């Protein structure tokens, strides 16, 4: 019999509520011979206020001993902006070398899209997860004077670009349309842009069946709205990927449905799965949050751990649930409905 050792980080705000439903569905979908061992970690605003810590090394070491991490949401208005984002969420992504930040953009049947017509949207954004402007490489000069300067330098390594680009080609190769779009801004960010473009072309020679395309990020935002069907797999840097995947969520039913995986394909460290949305303190504790994004993140987690059939059952349950949505349900009611469907 197999065991999944799952680290659970509910975090702040609605994180607690949506993670509870994700675990409910996970428990319902797993076959009887798979044992689920969960360890809950108290990280986020409460711990920060209590101890001043965001992510102590000892906790990082405990997390490392798990097969995967399920994370709810991080961030609270009582903590200065950036403290938990950098000290906890980004620290996890960097420490566990989650260089593949996988974010599907899929419009399920029956879900209203703000876009005109009846768009068919089914793409996946492969966002680089450990480099770019997220590395914290920068500083300030002459603070408080009228000549104050702030820099935020984007780090791009050939190693980091090549591994995410190759991963994206593999994913494109495995999909029916076999199309990969590089999104950057190589007409302005020429140093990083040319490195990305060159590596994209080089690695592409290994994948002759994959059709390639390049878009500047500003043009890509237009096509996300006017022609989302043109996208299959997209590969892009950390910041462009952050922005594009919020737009992707907006055109596919909202952030209540947007799932993500922070993946380290080598398995050297646990990968981490989380809804794209934040902690939504305005609706926290009221049972209003949609747990679907977390449930879909659990499906990605199962797929990553080698349970594709169970992942597919969750996706089918969500698809069925979405076609029948009427009225308002609580967070737990949505979780119950999905748990019932996957166990049927
Ligand atoms: C996301 C979030 C994070 C990011 C923040 C909270 C650090 O916006 O997961 O998309 O920018 O990656
Ligand atoms: Mn974001």
What would you report as the Rg, rounded to the nearest angstrom?
20 Å
Mean pLDDT: 97
Return the domain count: 2
Shape: globular
Order of helices and strands: EHEHHEHEEEEHEHEHEHEEHHH
Classified by CATH, the class of the largest domain is Alpha Beta
- Unreliable sequence segments: none
Within CATH, the superfamily of the largest domain carries the name Isopropylmalate Dehydrogenase
The CATH topology of the largest domain is given as: Isopropylmalate Dehydrogenase
Largest sheet: 10 strands, mixed
Q: Work out the number of β strands.
A: 12
Query: What are the bound molecules?
Result: 3-isopropylmalic acid, manganese (II) ion
CATH architecture of the largest domain: 3-Layer(aba) Sandwich
> If strands are numbered along the chain, what order do they take across the biggest sheet?
2-1-3-12-11-4-5-10-8-9
The SS-based structural class is: alpha/beta
Into which percent range does the helicity of residues fall? 40-55%
Residue fraction in strands: 15-25%
Distance between the termini: 22 Å
Please tally the helical runs, counting DSSP H or I stretches of 4 or more residues: 11
Quick summary:
This protein is an alpha/beta fold.
Would you write up a description of this structure?
The protein is an alpha/beta fold. The chain has 11 helices and 12 strands. Helix 5 crosses helix 6, helix 9 (292-304) packs antiparallel against helix 10 and helix 10 packs across helix 11 (331-343). The protein starts with a strand and ends with a helix. The protein binds 3-isopropylmalic acid and manganese (II) ion. Manganese (II) ion is lined by residues 242, 246.
């Amino acid at each position: 019999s197999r065991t999944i050792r799952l680290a659970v980080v509910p975090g702040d705000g609605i994180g607690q509520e949506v993670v509870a439903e994700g675990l409910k569905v996970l428990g319902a979908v797993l076959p009887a011979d798979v044992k689920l061992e969960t360890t809950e970690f108290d990280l986020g605003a409460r711990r920060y206020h209590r101890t001043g810590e965001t992510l102590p090394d000892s906790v990082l070491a405990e997390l490392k001993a798990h097969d995967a991490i399920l994370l709810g949401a991080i961030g609270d208005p009582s903590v200065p902006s950036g403290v938990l984002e950098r000290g906890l969420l980004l620290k996890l992504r960097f420490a566990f070398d989650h260089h593949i930040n996988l974010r599907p953009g899929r419009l399920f049947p029956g879900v209203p899209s703000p876009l005109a017509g009846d768009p068919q949207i089914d793409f996946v954004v492969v966002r680089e997860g450990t480099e770019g402007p997220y590395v914290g490489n920068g500083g300030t000069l002459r603070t408080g004077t009228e000549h104050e300067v702030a820099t935020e330098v984007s780090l791009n390594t050939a190693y980091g670009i090549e591994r995410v680009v190759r991963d994206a080609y593999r994913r494109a190769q495995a999909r029916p349309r076999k199309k990969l779009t590089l999104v950057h801004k190589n007409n302005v960010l020429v140093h990083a842009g040319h490195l990305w473009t060159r590596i994209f072309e080089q690695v592409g020679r290994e994948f002759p069946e994959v059709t390639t395309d390049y878009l500047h990020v500003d043009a890509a935002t237009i096509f996300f709205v006017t022609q989302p069907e043109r996208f299959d797999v997209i590969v892009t840097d950390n910041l462009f990927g952050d922005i594009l995947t919020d737009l992707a969520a907006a055109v596919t039913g909202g952030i209540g449905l947007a799932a993500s995986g922070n993946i380290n394909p080598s398995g050297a460290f646990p990968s981490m799965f989380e809804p794209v949305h934040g902690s939504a303190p305005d609706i926290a504790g009221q049972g209003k949050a949609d747990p679907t994004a977390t449930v879909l993140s659990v499906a990605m987690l199962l797929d990553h751990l080698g349970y594709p059939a169970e992942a597919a059952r969750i996706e089918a349950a969500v698809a069925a649930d979405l076609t029948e949505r009427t009225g308002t349900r609580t967070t737990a009611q949505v979780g119950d409905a999905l748990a019932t469907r996957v166990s049927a």
